[in-house]
């Protein structure tokens, strides 16, 4: 029997198709396709809220060049529920800036309203090739957004406050807002504003005297305690954390010292209380005028834990104690604590934000996973986890404490537009229960410049 080449190819193709059809009909593969297999990824909560600064490339911190703009500054809301592959962000314009700690957005305890502080205002119009970081002007606004329909976040109020607000935090009952003001701004003699909040409306700001804060030193973050009318005050210049009780109401507020000031590590950037309020965790970036490049050649950073009311001082006031520390990657700007109080994650910039032609650049950022003993405050560093991303300044655990969302400011491939919210899981080998972080393939695009984020549980 003779076969032409065409007949041979046709016979072979028929055999392949017949074999493939037979395989497709096997019960196991049919069930596999019907089940749509996927690794566990049940990210729990109501929604994620993040903000993006579209005005500058990350490298503007080093070379001063803002670069081409991508869109407008934005507030992004990602409603949760359903499979994570189907998530998307709903955005509205919200002037904000990455030039400060990644605590420029906060959400009321009921999840109804988001507050955003404007550290720098939007970049001026003009040729982007000539625009520099120094062209940005201090912002002086706080914006309120209604999230009752998370697919249509709506601005309902904007109010002027003193210049260059750096961070925002909302009290446990949602009635008071604490805003920290950079000392390089203008308009007030004190670096802290306390603002009443009721039904999504901000009242008149009050600028109380901050006790035990030397004039000119930078208060960089004020964080409300989860169960008390107490603020943790992070002093970047002195590397200390102090505590004050907020007294008063309406337009009269007074800050009273609550216990001792605690010395922490170089260049603290933000503080987070553990869910039970027994400890506060503070990151140290090791930046400063005595560091080469101020921050571009910083060594590895750290986190420390402080136990509140560890004892009593001679005058009867509480004694707070530094109890543990752990090393992180380089420049751990972001800090997240799991809802079960057992994990701490830092988002480490490394040197990902340097210009592409700078030999010091790291073509990666990283996360550091640390375990936390909720009873003792003991910290134990697990490992660093490098990943392909630029300037990740914030992370948020989901409500189950098993998954993590991480902001990615930008991509190393300039053809990829925007930034993203990337999803990780805490995993372990069943035969070796040591926890580890695993980056998943799931990601939600947002406007370029994502830098601050919170979970609404």
Protein topology:
Blueprint lengths: L4 H20 L2 H9 L11 E6 L7 H4 L10 E6 L10 E4 L11 E3 L5 E8 L17 E9 L7 E7 L4 E6 L5 E6 L10 E7 L2 E2 L16 E6 L5 E6 L4 E10 L2 E6 L4 E2 L4 E6 L5 E6 L15 E13 L5 E13 L1 E6 L5 E6 L16 E8 L6 E9 L7 E3 L5 E6 L10 E11 L2 E15 L3 E7 L1
Antiparallel strand pairs: 1-2, 1-29, 2-3, 4-5, 5-6, 6-7, 8-9, 9-10, 10-11, 12-13, 13-14, 14-15, 14-16, 17-18, 18-19, 19-20, 21-22, 22-23, 23-24, 25-26, 26-27, 27-28
**Broad CATH class:** Mainly Beta
Morphology call = globular
**Gyration radius, in Å:** 25 Å
Uncertain segments are 1-25
CATH topology: Methylamine Dehydrogenase, Chain H
Ends distance: 73 Å
Class inferred from helices and paired strands: mainly beta
What about the largest sheet? Answer: 5 strands, antiparallel
What is the CATH superfamily? YVTN repeat-like/Quinoprotein amine dehydrogenase
Tell me the β content.
35-45%
CATH architecture: 7 Propeller
Mean pLDDT value: 92
Number of domain modules: 1
Number of helices: 3
Helix content: under 10%
